[in-house]
Amino acid sequence: MNRLRALGRALTGWYVIAPVAVLVGLAVGALVFVYAMPGKPNIGVINLPFAVITDESAIIISEYLNYARRDDSIKAVVINIASPGGGAAASERMYLETRKLRAEKPVVLVMNGLVASGGYMMAMGANHTYAQTSSLVGNVGVIAFSGPLIPRPPPENIVITGPDKLSGGSRRDWIELIDQLKGAFAQLVIAERGEKLRLTEAELTRGRLYSGVDAVRLGLADELGGQSDAVQKAAELAGISNYGFVDVNAAVQREFLLRVRRIFASEHDGAALDSGDALTPLLLNLDANDALPGASGPESGAGIERLPGLRQLTLYGSWGTDPENPLPEFPLDIGRPNIYYLYAGYDN
């Protein structure tokens, strides 16, 4: 009994309790840090790899923007862009997607080189814009191809329900349409730039390009600067410090590879597709005549002629249609309305 009492006094002594309390406190603190404290904040960086904004490039750019919006570790986003613009609908989509991201996280955009027309429209979706002295900015306006003044009559075997069913409208209608779009573009810029803008609507819609210096002076951009300035501004707007970076382009490509792996993996070739390097050629430079690495069955011998469709499936969620022949049984050529927010440059 005396020995048990002595052992009890020893175990309850301060020289035993104090170290144990310290160890318990450290363990609890570590658990709180790991499970309760947020991770290190990040700034997402998006480098737009497409010069012209088309329906196809807009799909992937939207994925970059959506990834940055979904990733909770990304607290602010820096976008580097150089674009002459592109299709009217695609350019407007880029503006709306950028503005949607801006509603949740600060977006700072850097204008590199030429940022004109639809490219400039996308820039209007950011919280803050930087231009460089050598940047060319602006070119607000519309380009459209409306067809001949007197449209050709339809073939005798084609029945139409109205005089404008084939063409969509007369030349006068098309001119009114692009004038309406021009006004909407100008009002978008005026609303986004607010009191900073030093141009009237008439001056804005002349379609001029301005140097980075003049773009800042006239209120088309906020400041002169580059990527490092944009990163600092993004951190300031997000109220973060000690931040890291996320390469959004690379992150989306990794997701793409994982989706491709899940599509083509099977009991037999799953191990071959387990390596990230095995599918890198699919995203980068796999030709239509190449076979899928590690694939078996019908996908292996015939090559991957459907790779563009696969890219669209994995990035956007649908196979889409063949743009060269959307309706193979239809007797007429199918054309798209040729309306662009695009800087076309001078004809040599």
Architecture overview:
- Strands 1, 3, 5, 6, 7, 9, 10 and 11 form an eight-stranded mixed β-sheet that branches. Strands 2-4-12-8 form a four-stranded mixed β-sheet.
- The protein has 348 residues and is an alpha/beta fold.
- About 15% of the residues have low confidence.
- The protein folds into three domains: 34 residues; 206 residues, 2-enoyl-CoA Hydratase, Chain A, domain 1; 77 residues, no CATH class.
- The chain has 13 helices and twelve strands.
- The chain starts with a helix and ends in a 6-residue tail after the last strand.
Brief overview:
With 348 residues, the protein is α/β, with parallel strands linked by helices. The termini are far apart.
Keyword list:
348 residues, single chain, 2-enoyl-CoA Hydratase, Chain A, domain 1, 43% helix, eight-stranded mixed beta sheet, 12 strands, four-stranded mixed beta sheet, alpha/beta
Computed over alpha carbons, the radius of gyration is 29 Å
Gap from first CA to last CA: 107 Å
Q: How many domain units?
A: 3
Query: Under CATH, the topology of the largest domain is which?
Result: 2-enoyl-CoA Hydratase, Chain A, domain 1
Total DSSP E strands: 12
Shape: flat
Q: How are helices and strands ordered from N to C?
A: HHEEHEEHEHEEEHHEHEHEHHHHE
Protein structure class: alpha/beta
Name of the top-level CATH class of the largest domain: Alpha Beta
The largest pleated sheet is described as: 8 strands, mixed
In the predicted model, the low-confidence regions spanning at least 5 consecutive residues are 31-37, 271-307, 313-320
Question: What is the tally of helical segments?
Answer: 13
**CATH homologous superfamily name of the largest domain?**
2-enoyl-CoA Hydratase, Chain A, domain 1
Helical content class? 40-55%
Report the β-strand fraction as a percent range: 15-25%
CATH architecture of the largest domain: Alpha-Beta Complex
- Look at the structure and give the mean pLDDT: 79
